[in-house]
Structures are given as structure tokens and as C-alpha cells.
Design a protein that fits this description.
The complex is a heterodimer of chains A (411) and B (294). Chain A is α/β, with parallel strands linked by helices and 411 residues long. Chain A is built from 14 helices and 14 strands. The chains are: A alpha/beta (411), B mainly alpha (294).
């Protein structure tokens, strides 16, 4: 009796298994939780990062969803929801938890601000749901704090330093002096860049550490000027960078020394104006005016936002679309399967050039060294950059051999 | 010649830049001192008024094509009028209450104003150029000083002197001072005290607007510019002695210099030094350097 029952059960199970496999083959539709995909854009809607991500990222994610639906006509529903994390890690991780647990969110994207990004990554790891960070800069996301469920997409501070540092030194800017924001971000940016310029035969003449949100930069700039370094590296961000550039221009530093912005977004250049920003070199992960494909995206986005997208917003589009394609390829919205599908893909689209997802969950792709145009060279609105160099992803991003991520197997 | 390893020339340059910053502190803390002295209101929305002054300049340039000099004349009037409306609608209701209520009201107001500007204009701010007449720089021998910065010092000293003169040396000023000492008596002499107080508030915030327009070509016109500076300015007022006109002017300038020196010797502390001074002053002279012990 016992044996018969066991046999019957196993026969039934085998039969079900065959039928199930056959079914999956026949319909080629992913098995989805809730038969829908929901993408949550967690961003800064009103604070200091709202211009580089914010509503623009939400719009970009929606564009990616619309494009995927138009191209693939999926039988399941896809939608985008968004929330303001207010640059508070507790608010951000609370929202992530709520989204994964009760709102059926499959992917959280953007998450500008490294503090919030790191907090949200922990939630993703705990819930085994996916997060693609397109907004934050900290390399910790793919080093100490790496986990299988959080992917880092657009850029990181190492790449910013490596691209600007190497290309400028090789272009003849051998001696550097840093204007460094006196907190963890600025100091690590300075440290990373110094390492790179020294490795390439350049020297650092030192730095001046300014407090965060120091509205007047004139005295710091005078010290930078007195250093007689060829390049002044701005290891700061946002309003500090903008005010430093403005003062550098006023004091005529830019006539004899050149400025290197280590974290400058196109929205910063737009708000400074070319008159003030001209000549500065900076690292970017993407620019709307690189080629026909990028221009096409830029114009479509402009129609909706009345601004051109930067690397974070376009990156959110890129990540969302890549995710949806990976779900299709994996036939599942289960995070492990999706990540495995992404790691198999080689990316070459309007955003990712020679892109591939590494074992530490770093999306490696070509980066660019830009120089801000002179006003006379700018022929149309948002025509801001010369592409000075394209740096292959493997040179721009931290080598795997230096990785501190436990997921990376050291050989 | 060197002082503590710093060339004298560099030191002079830094002192001069400190004076430029001190001019802003002086002008902003003067407005606060006037408002506190005559209205007993701790005006935390002062930074927002400063920011709005800069934005009026930007808007006049952007939408009307009117340049810097027009802004310098019109922005204070616009912001002064705005301040009067705020005073009539909101602030006058808290005169008789504890200082804390005025502080909370104006602080909340500042948050609202900042939020509205951030929503409307974005967080990274707007560009504003140096006016043509003040472009370029002058070689002073020990440093190259942009002409615009020199103008800031001259303009703010002028504004501070005029304000001090009006309040301390004219008949209107004496009404004002008397009105704060004993409003009922002054009212009995036929002076319209509520109107006088209202105009004083308008004047105080107009001073902030002047500072805002003066700052626009130097720093990015951004919704956050007010909150970055307001705390320092309050420290200046506390050090000078709450409500002391002359005290706030002199303290503003002096702290600009102290900050300038800190930027040379230990730049990391340049945002903190003002508060260290404040703590020391409060320990030794709780009423401030120029305040009267009551």
C-alpha cells in the first residue's frame, strides 16, 4: 500500500513536471509574481539631487517601460511608481521595505545619494529582490557592501577619479592641487585621484579642505592659485563645485590653471552657464550629444521634461529597459535568474558602450572625459561638451583584482 | 616677510577677502538687529529674504532684461513690500508672545519659501553675471582683487553707515527707539506706532534683499543660499549683542576677518570658528560684546 502510494505520487509528480516544462516552452511567457512587473523609482524629488535625478528619473523609467511594451507587447502589466527618499537613509530603506513587502515592487532604481543607496541595498539583500543603483556614487556598493541583489550601473567615484586623473595627466596636466570638501566623499575622491595621477607620472601639490556648503571659495582658490599647480581638481559636489567654479572664474584662475571637476553633472554646467564653466574638464558616463542614438533619446526626453537628461536619468532608462529584457530572457522575475540573465548579456546600446555586468555587480561600460565648450562653440541649446577621450570601461572602473567584495572569487 | 610661515602678501589678500565676507555678515546681521531691537522678533526668515532678493535680481534679468543696477534699486522695494505683507498677516500676531513663537513662525516661513523656490527653480540654482561696469580686477600689489568684490565692501559699508545714522542720529530714528522703549507713550504723542513697526520690518528685510543682490554675481543664485548663511549671521548677532546696531556691523566685519585668517591657517575649521567665538563670548559676556546687561 505504502509502495503503491509512493509510486502513484511520484508518477504524478513526473507527469506534472513534464507538463509544466512543456507549458513553459509553449507560452514563452515569464512566470511572474502577481503576473505583473512593478518598478519603483526611489529618488530625491525636492532636495539638492533633484536636478540630477528626481522627476527626470521617474520620467526616464516610464519611457523605458513604454518602449518595452511597444516592442514586445507583453501579456503582463508593467508599471512605475515613485517616492521621495528626502536624502534620509531611514526614509529610503523604510520605503524600499514597504515596496518589496506590500506593493509588489520587483525592481527599485535610481536611489541617488550614497547614504540612502547603501541602506536600501541592505533591504534588497534581505528581501532577495533587485535594486539597480543609477544615482549614487560610492564604490562601497560594489566593494564592502556588495550583495547579489544590488547592481551599480551608471558611474562611481573610482571611475570619476580614474578617467579625469589619467586622461588629464596624459594630456600634460602633470601637477595637481585639490579643493576638497572636508567629509568622507571629498576625501576619498581626492585620495583616489591622487593615486591615479601618481601612477601615471603626475604629482599632487597638496590640497585645501573646505567645509561642506562653504559659500565663499575665494580664499581657498587663492591658496590653490599660489600652489602654481597646472590643474585644480575639484573634489566636491553640487553647490560647492558650482560656487568654486564661479569664484575661480571671477579671480581669473582659469587663465593660467585649468579646472578639473571630479563630479560635475550636465545640469550643473547648465546652471553655471558656458561663460563661467568654459574650458573645465570633467568625467561623464553619458552625454546626450554623443551620436544619433543618444540624440534621439535626448530629444524624446526633452519633449517631456524641457531639459536634457544627464547620466543618472538616462541611466535609469537604460537600467529599467535592461531589467525588463532580462526578465523576458530569464522567463522569470525572480531576482537571481534575472541577474544571471544580465550577466550573460553584452550591452551595446545608446547608453552602455561595451557594457557588461561583472561578478561584483558593477556594470562596466565606456566612460568619457569631457571639456566644456566656449560660448562661441556652442551651436544649439545644451551643446556643452567636447568629448576629449573615451575611456574603455575596464580602464575606468576599479579592477577586479582590487575588489573588496566577498562575492568576487580571488584566484 | 613671513608670519607663521605664511607670506605677508598672501595674508593681506586673505584678510581682504575676509573683509568682503564680513561685509555680507554685517549687512545681514544689521537687518536682524534692527528687527530684533525694534520688534523683538528673532527673524529666522531673514535668510529666505536674502535668497529672494537674489532671485528678484535674476528674474528681472531673465524675464525683463533689466540689469544689475535696476535690481539693486528695485529688489529691496519688492522684498520690503513682501515683508510688510508678511508682517501684517502673520508676524504682528506674535509680538506679545514669548520670543520663541516669533522664532518658530519665521523659521517655518523660511522653510515654506525655500521649498516653493526649490520646487519652481530647481536645486542647482541660476547663473548671474558680474555687471559690465565692475568686470575685471585691480592689482593691489599683494593680490589681484576683482573689482566687484571691492564694490561689495564699499556698498555694504555705505548701507550700514546710513542705517546706523538714520536710527541713531535722526528724528525718525529717535521715534523708532522711543517706540520700542514705551510704545503707549509714543502713541499718545501722536505717532502711529504699529505703522512704524511695520515699516521697520519692511526696511529690515529690504537690507537682506540688498545683500542678496550684492551676492548674486559672487555665488550661485540658489534656493539654499539663505540657509547656508543664516546660522552664521545669527551667531554674529549673538556675539555683537542682540539688537545692537553698531555691534552687529562691527562684529560682522570682525568675524569676516577671523574667518579669513582661519581659512589660511586651518581651513577645516573655517565654518566652525564663528561658533567657537560665540561660545567664548557667551561665557565671558553673556549679553554680547556690545549688548547691555539687563
Amino acid at each position: 500500500m505504502n509502495t503503491t502510494l509512493r509510486n502513484a505520487v511520484s508518477t504524478a509528480l513526473v507527469a506534472m513536471g513534464i507538463a509544466g516544462a512543456g507549458l513553459a516552452h509553449a507560452q514563452a511567457q515569464p512566470r511572474l509574481s502577481g503576473n505583473a512587473i512593478r518598478i519603483g523609482v526611489l529618488t530625491d524629488m525636492s532636495g539638492l539631487y533633484s536636478d540630477i535625478s528626481g522627476q527626470g528619473s521617474v520620467t526616464a523609467a516610464q519611457m523605458a517601460v513604454d518602449d518595452f511594451i511597444a516592442a514586445n507587447k507583453p501579456a503582463y502589466k508593467i508599471d512605475v511608481i515613485s517616492a521621495d527618499h528626502q536624502n534620509k537613509p531611514d526614509v529610503g530603506s523604510g520605503k524600499a521595505r514597504e515596496w518589496y513587502d506590500t506593493q509588489g515592487v520587483d525592481l527599485i532604481a535610481d536611489i541617488v545619494n550614497s547614504g540612502v543607496g547603501l541602506a536600501a541595498a541592505k533591504v534588497a539583500a534581505e528581501k532577495k529582490k533587485l535594486m539597480i543603483n543609477t544615482g549614487a556614487g560610492s564604490t562601497r556598493l560594489t566593494n564592502e557592501d556588495c550583495n547579489p541583489y544590488s547592481i551599480h550601473w551608471a558611474y562611481d567615484t573610482y571611475a570619476l577619479a580614474a578617467v579625469a586623473g589619467r586622461a588629464i595627466v596624459q594630456g600634460g596636466g602633470k601637477s595637481w592641487y585639490f579643493l576638497t570638501a572636508d567629509y568622507a566623499f571629498g576625501q576619498s575622491l581626492e585620495q583616489d585621484t591622487t593615486g591615479i595621477i601618481k601612477a601615471n607620472g603626475g604629482t599632487s601639490f597638496g590640497s585645501v579642505r573646505h567645509p561642506l556648503n562653504a559659500s565663499d571659495f575665494s580664499s581657498f582658490l587663492l591658496q590653490a592659485q599660489a600652489s602654481k599647480a597646472q590643474v585644480i581638481g575639484l573634489a566636491n559636489a553640487g553647490g560647492d563645485t558650482i560656487n568654486a567654479i564661479k569664484a575661480a572664474n571671477e579671480f581669473g584662475l582659469t587663465k593660467t590653471q585649468s579646472l578639473a571637476g571630479l563630479l560635475v553633472f550636465i545640469s550643473d554646467v547648465h546652471s553655471l552657464g558656458l561663460n563661467v564653466a568654459q574650458g573645465m574638464q570633467l568625467t561623464d558616463g553619458w552625454y546626450w550629444d554623443l551620436n544619433e542614438d543618444t540624440r534621439k533619446f535626448g530629444r524624446r526626453y526633452f519633449e517631456k521634461m524641457k531639459k536634457m537628461p544627464g547620466m543618472v536619468q538616462a541611466g535609469t532608462y537604460s537600467a529599467t529597459l535592461a531589467y525588463l529584457n532580462a526578465v523576458k530572457a530569464a522567463g522569470s522575475d525572480e531576482a537571481d535568474a534575472v541577474v544571471a540573465a544580465m550577466k550573460k548579456t553584452r550591452y551595446n546600446d545608446f547608453y552602455l558602450r561595451n557594457g557588461h555586468l561583472r561578478d561584483d555587480n558593477r556594470m562596466v561600460h565606456d566612460m568619457y572625459l569631457m571639456q566644456v565648450k566656449k560660448p562661441a562653440e556652442s551651436k544649439y541649446p545644451w551643446d556643452y561638451y567636447h568629448v576629449k577621450a573615451t575611456v574603455p570601461g575596464d580602464e575606468a572602473y576599479q579592477p577586479m583584482s582590487a575588489s573588496r567584495c566577498p562575492m568576487v572569487k580571488k584566484s | 616677510m613671513e608670519i607663521l610661515g605664511i607670506p605677508l602678501q598672501a595674508l593681506l589678500g586673505q584678510l581682504l577677502l575676509g573683509l568682503v565676507n564680513g561685509s555680507f555678515y554685517a549687512m545681514l546681521s544689521l537687518g536682524l538687529a534692527v528687527i530684533f531691537g525694534l520688534l523683538n522678533i528673532i527673524n529666522f526668515s531673514h535668510g529666505a529674504m536674502y535668497m529672494m532678493g537674489a532671485y528678484v535680481a535674476w528674474m528681472m534679468m531673465e524675464y525683463l532684461g533689466l540689469g544689475y543696477w535696476w535690481s539693486l534699486a528695485i529688489a529691496p522695494i519688492v522684498i520690503g513690500a513682501f515683508g510688510i505683507v508678511i508682517e501684517r498677516l502673520l508676524i504682528r500676531h506674535v509680538y506679545k508672545l514669548d520670543h520663541l513663537y516669533g522664532l518658530l513662525l519665521t523659521f517655518g516661513l523660511a522653510l515654506v519659501i525655500e521649498g516653493v523656490y526649490r520646487d519652481r527653480f530647481g536645486a542647482s540654482g541660476q547663473p548671474y553675471g558680474v555687471p559690465d561696469a565692475l568686470r575685471g580686477a585691480t592689482n593691489l600689489g599683494f593680490m589681484i582683487l576683482p573689482n566687484y568684490r571691492a564694490w561689495v565692501v564699499v556698498a555694504s559699508l555705505l548701507v550700514c553707515f546710513l542705517t546706523w545714522f538714520v536710527i541713531e542720529r535722526t528724528r525718525i530714528g529717535s521715534y523708532l527707539r522711543a517706540g520700542t522703549e514705551n510704545p503707549r507713550l509714543v502713541q499718545a504723542f501722536g505717532v502711529n506706532v504699529p505703522r512704524m513697526v511695520m515699516l521697520t520690518y519692511g526696511f529690515g528685510v529690504a537690507l537682506a534683499a540688498v545683500a542678496g543682490v550684492l551676492a548674486a554675481p559672487i555665488i550661485q543664485v540658489s534656493p539654499l543660499m539663505g540657509s547656508n548663511v543664516i546660522i552664521v549671521v545669527f551667531a554674529v548677532v549673538v556675539i555683537g549683542g542682540m539688537g545692537s546696531i553698531l555691534g552687529s556691523i562691527l562684529t560682522g566685519l570682525a568675524l569676516g576677518l577671523v574667518e579669513g585668517l582661519t581659512r589660511v591657517f586651518y581651513p577645516e575649521a573655517s565654518a566652525t570658528v564663528v561658533f567657537v567665538v560665540m561660545a567664548l563670548v557667551l561665557m565671558l559676556r553673556p549679553a554680547g560684546l556690545f549688548g547691555r546687561e539687563s
